[in-house]
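Thread: Newbie trying to understand structure tokens

Hi all, I'm a second-year student working on a class project, and my supervisor (Dr. K.) asked me to get a predicted structure for one chain before our next meeting. I've only ever worked with sequences, so writing a 3D structure as a token string is new to me. If someone could post the tokens and maybe explain what I'm looking at, I'd be very grateful. Here's the chain:
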Amino acid sequence: MTDLTMTTRRERPFDPPDTFTRIRQQAAVHRMTYADGHEGWLITGYDEARAVLADPRFSNRPELMHPPIARPGFKPEDAGRFSVPPGFFLRMDQPEHTRYRKLLTGQFTVRRMKLLEPRVQEIAESCLDAMEAGPRPADLVEAFALPIPSLVICELLGVPYEDRERFQDDSRILVNLETKADDALAALGRISAYLSGLIGRKRAHPEDDLLSGLAVGGELDDAELTGVAILLLIAGHETTANMLGLGTYALLTNPDQLAAMRDDPSVVDNGVEELLRYLSIIHLGPIRAALEDVEIGGRLIAKGDAVTLHLPVVNRDPGRFPGADTLDVTRPAGGHLAFGHGIHQCLGQQLARIEMRIGYAALLRRFPDLRLAVEPHEVPMRTDMSIYGVHRLPVTW
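---
Reply by user tm_fold:
Sure, no problem. This is what the structure looks like when written as tokens:
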């Protein structure tokens, strides 16, 4: 057995755990012991991670997975209590995955997302207006990072924004690594019941939104559409919100990089890609399982073996990104795996990019002297969550 196990503990807030950086220097593919005792693999090399994500011999089905990290609130027998909701295509392989993805791809094209830019700009400015008029210091997560993607995804899907506390609280429960199984099941049940009721209303009285379009299209039943809605709603605000919060924290502690993005708007697009690479907030995966024997990086991964990709380390691979441990917003953009790769590459990546480009640019323009209101080490980090970021970011100006 190997003594290598997964951890979320970090020595520095923006860098991967030192253990995984060190082992990447030894080899790109490593044996790892999973929380249930399964002997699987950890991928830390860029080329190897990309190969796994593109290979249909690796499955994303949950019944084949093993937990990479122990969750204090879960017992081994709890795994059988959870099932993937119909329509939750993130946890499906082809051809089931393809069926759902095709229904949505046209809704998230670059052209359609660009049409949303004026509304995203309006939302960002409104959040900054409220922040400027409010007390100081302010929590940037509550005032800015969370409201922007939450309001955008609510409007896109047709979810009333005034109901946001109902799904935001339950979303936090679901991504908390310390949540007990009973609490996670209850949170999933509440989100499902809420969205199921909403979808029923969409079928009866459709409006100009994505869920209404899917409801009247007739391709999905209520259970499938509820699963799709759960995935899009949670992913649509959890990920971008944490990138806006953590990215701002990184810029505030790297003043030369902040100045580069603030003083030259042409740098912002490139800076967004660099922050995505440098921070890699998906820090416990992706996870796959081999459907047959596959050789990756010179190692034979046997049928049934679980494979975890450590994206924060993968996106720091110096073989792909020279000087990878340095934040450089002028670094030539592209190539990172923050949005994944292959058939499961993030459906909403263009929307996320727009929200970050507009969000960072508006924030730095409106608050050119923005600064932390606490010492850097006092910022509470989301090491207890499956999506990394900051719980709060106290700032002043």
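A couple of things are worth pointing out once you decode it. The chain has a mean pLDDT of 94. The two ends are 53 Å apart (CA to CA). Feel free to ask follow-ups in this thread.
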